[in-house]
Amino acid sequence: MEGGGQDNGGGDELCGTGRKEEFEQGDVEGLGAADEWWQIWNCSGSLAATTFALFVLVVSELLNPLGPDVKRVASAAAVYGFWFASAFLAMCVLCRQGQGSFGFAVSGEFRFGAAVVAMALLWSEAPVAMSLAGWVAVAAVAMGGIADGAWLAVVSLRREVPPWRALAIVFREEKQARRELWRRLYWGSSR
Question: What is this structure's pTM?
Answer without folding.
Answer: 0.73
